[in-house]
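# step 3/5: fold
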Amino acid sequence: MRQFWKLLHFTAMAALVLAILFMPLTTAVSVPSDQIFQYIEEHQNEYVQRLKDWVAIESNSNDPAKRHLVTNMMLLAEERIRKLGGTVEMVDLGMQELPNGNKISLPPVILANMVKDPKKPTVCFYGHMDVQPAKIEDGWSTEPYLLTEKNGNLYGRGASDDKGQVLAVLNAIEALQKHELPVNVKFLLEGMEEVGSTGLNTLVEQRNSTFFSDVDYIVVTDSGWLSNKPGITYGTRGNCYFFVEVECAKRDLHSGGFGGILHEAMNDLIFLLNTLVDSSGHILIPGIYEAVAPLTEKEKKLYEGIEYDLDQIKAKYGIKEFRNKTKEELLMQRSRYPSLSIHGIEGAFSAPGTKTVIPAKVTGKFSIRLVPNMEPSVVEKQVTDYLNKKFTELNSPNSIKVTSDVGSKSWLSDTNEPQYLAARKAIKRVFGKEADMIRAGGTIPIATHFQEVTRKSIMLLGIGGPDDAPHGQDEKISRYNFIEGTKLYAAFLQELATV
């Protein structure tokens, strides 16, 4: 009997020791408490005011005359990070040469650190502080650079893309710091995203062995949802942009004097453009689909759970009919398969009224969205060879030239990586529903570059709504997305410490 009580006493003591040992770990990495969410709720008006201050800066990177405002925006973001206790390096990217030959300074890039504990994982957030041009005469219903709240929405240029999303992360960190920031956080913020991120790729390569050396995860905030259901983006398509130029004369000609007696450049170009896709949208260029990965049952299931109302989308954009009949087919076509779109013809008469001119030279513009395993250089050769072959079949004496911009590769991540699991848990906690797992149809070159250079886990976790109109008139973010999105980032950072 005495042996039994000794054994019982030993077992109880062992259990107590184990409980004490694991208690700090469990407490430190627990998901955000009600107090943190409450703090965010209580400070939401302060967060909206901060966004108002940020939106007020016309950080339009398209206009060299406003470059100083982009720099001012970078300084404001630096100030906010420093107030949260972060260390900031303002990296000088040098000069930019403009088309007219003049040179101006590029805005600095922010490289920031918050908490440096080698025992904790490190996540780096990427975002941008520059915006697209906006004027009220473009059709805005409010002043673009005066954040205006109407019907639960916060209207202003950059409210969603990307100032509001970056600010939500910083606000989440502030709330967590009232208790504990459970992971190390870094920031890379730039001011030239809207015009191609000049100088950023080189900086990422230069700092890969230093700034990124201890980074475990990279999160891009510059993204949105397909519907009102929160989503996580794990892939994007790439892009190749093409120009096909046809020339028939040294100068424009009168159709009365030359119509019918020569091979017109416009006719040749229309013929060529008409050979690119068939009536179902299938690309006719040989070899284009050879690199496309086959659809697996596991991947197919991801599309089934996504919230996407075809009728609602058609009504919103005035589309009469989609080529695809089901939601799943449409989502796959817009994200995991390549597509070809014709964008315009340069050199043709397009003004109102009539003009009986035969253009001497016309240039057709089209692009192909790329999916994983499609190499831009290979696609460029396939397109060039095909168009030259088709032009030869025309027996036209005109000249043809096919060129392309530097292509961007697609990007695809593994949705079972730890940060994806953390993000899904965070969305479930904050919104009470499972996350949509999204492959975007567009292109985000920085995601591809991060993946290729750093070899880190990349994820797009944004809080933009499906109708935020980034780049368009009346850009906005809803107050709901802004505040609940702040909770999401807080929950994500804590969940990340547990995976």
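# step 4/5: annotate
Confidence is low (pLDDT under 50) at residues 1-8, 10-29.
# step 5/5: archive (pending)
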